[in-house]
Amino acid sequence: MEIKTITICGGGNAAHAIISVIRNNFSGKINLFLPYGNEVAYFKKLIDEKRFITATIGDNKLYGRPDKVSKFAKEVCKEADLILIPLPAFAHEQTLLQIVPSLKEEAIIGAIPARSGFEYAALKILKDNNKEKVKIFGMQTLPWACRIKEYAASVNILGKKKSVGMAAFPHKITPKLASFLSRVLDLKIEPLPNMLTLTLANVGQIIHPGIMYGLFKGKEQATYQKETIPLFYQGVTKEIAKTLKAISDEILILTEKIKALDKKVNLDHVLGLKDWLIYSYEGSIADKSTIQTCFNTNSAYQGLRAPVKKEKDYFLPDFQARYLTEDVPFGLIVIKSIAQLAEVETPVIDEIILTISQWMGKEYIKGGFLEGKDIKDARIPRNYGMKNLEEIIIY
Ligand code: NAD
Asked: Which residue among 67, 80, 231, 258 is least packed, with the fewest CB closer than 10 Å?
């Protein structure tokens, strides 16, 4: 696998972190694709002033800058061997639509993180553009938590995970790609057997909507002062932990049903929530006894508060936050649609989708079915022409 040029998409927190981390471990060319709004002009001006993006990771500082930046895919994607999409899932499709026509046949393109159903959109767009030789991959999560401190200048990287899962299609490229990504991202990348694992093992879809539901159900109109905004992960109560476990259990039941229907599919890496927390945050959890303590005593989660929006002199829960706009239509709803194909009931997931859709002003479920007016915007197999379970189990 010869990778000489890597193109990174977007100018968010994750893209800032990835530019600096990769620059320190990769001697090839790094391009940046910034199609969104007027970001490109802003980025170019600032990086020329600051010269580097400085990433602070513990006591270390890493410095990096892209070699070429453009708003146009043909200028930064044509020569790319590897394209990384570290963007919120709602930006995947429009980004892919711009990139794919410029890709060379040997290119590999992947989302970090994939969230659920990335391959449905990616494979359809590749097919529509006669680029079916292009390979795809997804990572299970972002390797760290990261926040831009100053745009095009500095980013803080915290809570590095012990290991992150990665699956590719076709599967045969997975080991070599995992080893390359592991080197350039400076992190253990665990090769996963298929992309369906990424969807079923997408923990963001459990944690984010689950905690939001627990914190705000019945308190939708609550108002907060800065210091009283609920802590997000440390705010997980016994009751919220019970809801999170119930979502995780429904996904595990679905996983078992798929395994029973297709004896060949390997879904052994789909872990229950508690097992995933302990596996991913081994060194940072002080008390591993329950799901609640895994959140409350995890140093990687300390101090992070629930998403809120400012109103006059107080704050309200923010129901347009990414924890919902990303993790419901690109998470729980994908699970619900696969569960329907596998004929598995998901009463807890249904209740959470229904409640949260109302908060978001969306309608995904109608009369118990995924027939609401906004279902066209969710990344469910049916929206990409896939109508049965066999079509989503690909290797
Ligand atoms: P972000 O909100 O910082 O990304 C914003 C960037 O995305 C923008 O600068 C723009 O370049 C691009 N963008 C936004 N909307 C777009 C659109 N409609 N079309 C094209 N581009 C668009 O996101 P992030 O924090 O870097 O997160 C990236 C991914 O990583 C998300 O899936 C997120 O859930 C996940 N993640 C992030 C963190 C973290 O700590 N930042 C932690 C875990 C997972």
From this structure: 67
Ligand 1: atom nearest CA of 90 is 18
The encoded tokens of residue 335 equal 């699970």
- Residue 28 has, within 13 A of its CA and on its CB side, a CA count of 15
Query: Which residue, among 147, 141, 180, has the nearest Cα to 161 in the 3D structure?
Result: 141
Cut 0.90: pTM above it:
yes
Q: Which CATH class is domain 5-192?
A: alpha beta
Residues with CB under 6 A from ligand 1: 10-14, 35-36, 39, 86-89, 91, 94-95, 113, 141-142, 145-146, 322, 326
Distance between Cα 199 and ligand 1 center (Å): 18
Helix, strand, coil abundance in the chain, percent, nearest 5: 45, 20, 40
Nearest-CA residue for atom 1 of ligand 1: 12
pLDDT in tens, 174-227: 999 999 999 999 999 999 999 999 999 999 999 999 999 999 999 999 999 999
200-230+239-269+306-393 maps to CATH 3.40.30.10? no
Read off the pLDDT of residues 57-113 as tens digits, 9 standing for 90 and up: 989 999 999 999 999 999 999 999 999 999 999 999 999 999 999 999 999 999 999
State the span(s) of the chain assigned CATH 3.40.50.720: 5-192
For residue 121, the one-letter residue type is: A
Residues of the chain with CATH 1.10.1040.10: 200-230+239-269+306-393
